[in-house]
Design goal:
Jelly Rolls, 2 domains, Immunoglobulin-like, alpha+beta, 6-stranded antiparallel β-sheet
């Protein structure tokens, strides 16, 4: 019996040892299986992240200036991903070092959106709310995200638009849903203000002749005896070369002309204003123009306005103001304007022309046109602002003409028309009529 007991104990010990060994083996097998799965997932996601590519176009914009509380920007973006579909989250953030920006989370991103080109124009992409944990490819938890997201096709182009503050950047995340979790495969950002603006502005145009626009109706639409004002933003590209910036001819009903020539000479700014092209009167407005800086020039003429030429800096500071001894004394009906020089010594971003209808008083709307273009800045598109002014001044203004010469893409059009709002029959007509005046000849551009 004693031998039997010893044998039974030995068998029990063997079974117990085998059970413990099998248990430990199972434990280690489970551990290494999970480890292999984690390493495999991590390797796969890291491999995918290395294949993500972003391309972002030159900035397109409506206005950039530190005084603005908000401004609009647009980009053409292209994302190439190894996956057929990739999810994008775009949001605005305050610039930080890249090491910290990597951990910046979306904090409400209604300011930015994605659009797709369709035959009828750009249409907004359908979005969804992403409310989930998001991880890095290495498995690190980046944070809990609640943001608007877009599913886009790989290797396709989209338009990214955003309303920004001057100190903002736009952050773009490329996300991928894998094995029940969201992973950020890649990210990038754009900094419109810090990186500067690469945009095309006009250096030379053919003349804009309004003597016979296609569908303009008399009696008044560009010049009259009450007063006219003309102004534009220009940048000095080369102060060493003498050149013409603008050449304006106002032709009155009785065929008398008033000539206005704006040009630079030896680093100074000159304006010639005369009723005879043979004996122009030179007015030196400002010396020592700084190369690479923007200036705003404003000229007002007429029997009911202050005849004066004014020059402002890009910070809206008045630099010089010179009175003029020439007036418009007859009803006018035609204006011809040519901008810039083929020498590419100046760039012009926008210009305006306004004529006064009311002779009883000088209204705020007349001078508000110039003030609006000045205070908004040289890159801002003032189209809507000026249309609002003319729409509120049917008894005060005959017309406003506006040119915007800023082009955000690498292939500017051969010509850009002026837009003109006017009242064909004088006062009391609402809304104002709208026509476009095209240049006679091709425009040339420079990138600034």
């Amino acid at each position: 019996m004693k031998g039997l007991s010893t044998a039974v104990v030995a068998i029990i010990l063997v079974i117990t040892t085998l059970s413990l060994m099998l248990g430990v083996f199972a434990l280690y097998s489970s551990y290494f299986s999970n480890t292999d799965y984690f390493v495999s997932t991590q390797s796969y996601l890291i491999g995918q992240s290395k294949l993500i590519q972003f391309q972002i176009s030159t900035l397109s914009f409506y206005g950039v200036q530190q005084a603005y509380k908000y401004f609009n920007v647009s980009y053409l973006i292209w994302v190439n991903s190894p996956t057929k579909t990739v999810t994008l989250v775009v949001f605005n953030a305050t610039p930080t070092p890249p090491s910290l920006l990597s951990y910046t989370l979306p904090q409400g991103n209604a300011e930015s959106g994605l659009f797709k080109s369709q035959p009828q124009g750009y249409v907004s992409l359908k979005s969804f709310t992403l409310d989930s944990d998001v991880y890095s490819p290495t498995g690190e938890l980046l944070g809990v995200i609640n943001a608007k997201a877009y599913n886009i096709s790989s290797n396709s182009s989209y338009v990214l638009s955003s309303i920004m503050k001057p100190d903002n950047i736009i952050v773009i995340w490329a996300l991928y849903y894998y094995q029940g979790k969201w992973y950020r495969l890649a990210w990038t950002y754009t900094a419109p203000v810090n990186q500067g603006l690469g945009v095309y502005t006009l250096t030379n145009s053919g003349p804009y002749n309004s003597s016979n626009p296609s569908n303009a109706k008399p009696p008044h639409f560009l010049a009259n005896q009450k007063g006219v004002m003309f102004g534009f933003w220009f940048e000095m590209l080369n102060t060493q070369v003498n050149s013409t910036i603008a050449n304006i001819t106002l032709t009155t009903v009785n065929k008398n002309n008033v000539y206005v020539i704006v040009y630079t000479k030896s680093g100074g700014l000159y304006v010639n204003i005369s009723e005879s092209s043979e004996s122009p009167i030179p007015y030196m407005i400002l010396q020592n123009l700084n190369q690479g800086e923007w200036y705003f020039l404003n000229i007002s003429l007429g029997s009911q306005v202050v005849n004066i030429v004014s020059v402002y800096s890009n910070n809206q500071e008045l630099l010089d103001r010179t009175p003029i001894n020439v007036q418009l004394t007859s009803n006018g009906y035609n204006v011809s304007v040519k901008f810039g020089s083929s020498l590419a010594t100046t760039a012009i971003s926008q210009a305006f022309f306004v004529s006064l209808q009311s002779s009883s008083s000088i209204t705020q709307h007349f001078y508000n046109v110039s003030k609006t273009v000045l205070t908004n800045g040289y890159y801002y598109n003032n189209t809507n602002d000026l249309k609002q002014i003319i729409s509120s001044a049917s008894n005060e203004l005959y017309d406003i003409v506006y040119w915007n010469f800023v082009w955000p893409y690498s292939t500017p059009p051969p010509n850009i028309p002026a837009i003109m709002w006017y009242y064909p029959s004088g006062s009391g007509n609402k809304p104002p009529a709208t026509i476009y005046i095209y240049p006679v000849g091709q425009n040339t551009y420079t990138i600034t």
